[in-house]
Amino acid sequence: xxxLFVGPLAARLLIWLGLLLGAWPALAQNTAELLPVTEAxxxxxxxxxxxVLKLHWTIAPxxxxxxxxxxxxxxxxxxxxxxxxxxxxxxxxxxxxxxxTYHHGVDASIPYTVAAGTNxxxxxxxxxxxxxxxxxxxxxxxxxxxDLPVPAAAGEVPPSAGGTNTALGVALSKLGASATGAxxxxxxxxxxxxxxxxxxxxxxKLLLRWxxxxxxxxxxxxxxxxxxxxxxxxxxxxxxxxxxHHDEHYGQVTVYFDQVELPxxxxxxxxxxxxxDLQASFQGCQDGGLxxxxxxxxxxxxxxxxxxxxxAVAPEMPPATIAGGPLQVSLALALLLALGGxxxxxxxxxxxxxxxxxxxxVLESGESHAVARxxxxxxxxxxxxxFAALGxxxxxxxxAGHAMGWGSQLQQPLVVGVLACLMLAVGLSMSGVVQFGASxxxxxxxxxxRSGPAGDFFTGVLAVVVASxxxxxxxxxxxAYAFAxxxxxxxxxxxxxxxxxALPFLLIGFVPALARLLPRPGRxxxxxxxxxxxxxxxxxxxxxxxxxxxxxxxAVGLVLVAMVLLAMTLWWFERSRSRGAVSKFAVIxxxxxxxxxxxxxxxxxxxxxxxxxxxxxxxxxxEKLASLRAAGTPVFVDMTADWCVTCKANEHTxxxxxxxxxxxxxxxxxxxxxxxxxxxxxxxAFLQQYNSPGVPLYVVFPKNGGPGRQLSTVLTRSxxxxxxxxxxx
Length: 729
Description:
Blueprint: H1 9-27, H2 37-40, E1 41-46, E2 52-59, E3 63-66, E4 71-74, E5 78-80, E6 89-93, E7 97-102, E8 105-114, E9 120-127, E10 129-131, E11 137-138, E12 142-149, H3 152-156, H4 164-172, H5 190-193, E13 195-202, E14 205-211, E15 216-219, E16 224-228, E17 234-237, E18 243-247, E19 251-257, E20 259-267, E21 275-282, E22 284-286, E23 295-302, E24 309-310, E25 312-313, H6 319-324, H7 331-345, H8 352-364, H9 369-399, H10 413-430, H11 444-449, H12 453-467, H13 475-484, H14 487-510, H15 512-515, H16 524-531, H17 533-575, H18 581-601, E26 617-619, H19 622-630, E27 635-640, H20 645-655, H21 658-667, E28 670-675, H22 681-689, E29 697-701, E30 709-710, H23 717-727
Parallel strand pairs: 26-28, 27-28
Antiparallel strand pairs: 1-2, 2-8, 3-7, 3-10, 4-9, 5-8, 6-7, 9-12, 10-11, 13-14, 13-24, 14-20, 15-19, 15-22, 16-21, 17-20, 18-19, 21-23, 23-25, 27-29, 29-30
């Protein structure tokens, strides 16, 4: 992490002198009401995920933490990666200059590796904060020593730089684990760990029920309940006896394990009320593990119904989604949506460059029905195998508690760099710079461009890889179902997506009437092939741009060096066909040299995040969203990523237009954006709350505090205009 204090030693001394002089008047005031530092900033840890330490600070009201004053130092046998911290609130400090601060709470995650034989995760965490109202005082830097058990998987196989391979290996071994998480020890998403529902038991009697898996508990005194827009109606709770528990932060507290039922009496005149909204805020923990931040749910209660109402995970989800979640969609409907989504995926810009390869091969097959069928079958096999592997990987990582979604493999810079090089290699092949033969039949670019079954199969693989940045219509509901359904049903959905993607070529291969509509092959085919190489080059350029936003100029420099070395390798490979063993050995040396910058790319640290405050855009944080909603401000939340082609298309056609900015000014709505280009646990949690398989995700929150409205992944101006206008009423 880059410190704010990076100037010369003299500058640091002057800053500290200013801090002391500025703090002196405050020290003279009565500081009796100030909290101890560990109560003002309550630090909780979660080391249940192998290779990642999660930290959460609960910050008391009128206190704040400095982002730039957080430091992390590893103990014996532990190597820490770059800490992942969200953007803070930017302002100019009288003594420290431009700083970022956190209010209410903040989450951080730190990747780590441990040496062989290390079974304790030891590190020190230093932080500093201030009291921002009288008496105004800044605490000195405070250090907490952490000594936590290393998860078994982390001790056995240290995570890689990206964490993906190790996580996948651990997750695959746990696919059969209990859905409650009892077998894995990994903390469950809050919606699964704390299920809340309500039941009307009479005209003015209500029962709230929290249900927790084994090993989870709920704090009684950290729970608050209120009615929204109830017109004078109030609540009278009757808490049952709980379990006395010693908490390291709260002392002796009352908690509830497994399940607790809370009777409530509605006091006041209910005449004229058909429905009321109850908001519950509460906190709980996994015994011996993660303590969750404050959770807020809203229940929509029909006073005349005895049907239980299930709470929404805050920020609130649309009522239609709350009622049954993604599994409310039947398997048959999910498969139909997946088929349609895969079919439309053929028209998305991320898939078109690879389809150009397939189009050339189909046209070259001429009128031979047998050859056309072979192309179609092997291409479809490549697509289906890739979707099956992708589905298994995502489901396995989800089972292990990792936040993975559609397209999230592009959060890994090494994956982006490899794909950029692959696009370049395919483009060079289509341009005629190199002709791959059987000797390189096992390389990625060769497999995608060679003729025969292997070429067809790996063209299908490549189509799936580059399709993942796009989200087509119908795909969102199907993928949301797949991410929540049992493994077999989920895999069927992924396979049906593959059938939809491969369907056009299946029809061409097996319907002779369609095949006869294709033009006859001729000399023009070579020109077409060379022209279609340029979309491949543009795809490589786009991937380098994504990498620039993830890891900055250093990463771009490394991948450009790798691409030049790759081009040199392919050029010399073509020249060495008729030469001796020395020339062929030179090809191997150049190929190995190409790998070096790619290996270095995996170790480039993330660039410092820039707050999304340009053009009136507010960077997403749960705390900022909560404060805006509490102030009665309508909010348009946009979860996006630089590698998401659908997101960029929506921004170009709708969100980055004068009409959209005029709409925000007219309605007083705030445009809040979350960037998921890189791994971000906070945004992953928001996506999970809405059962979204990935980005884009658009949610409009009304100013009256009601539930948010989730929009389609493909936006139109009229859709956005209507949603924001209604939210501002």
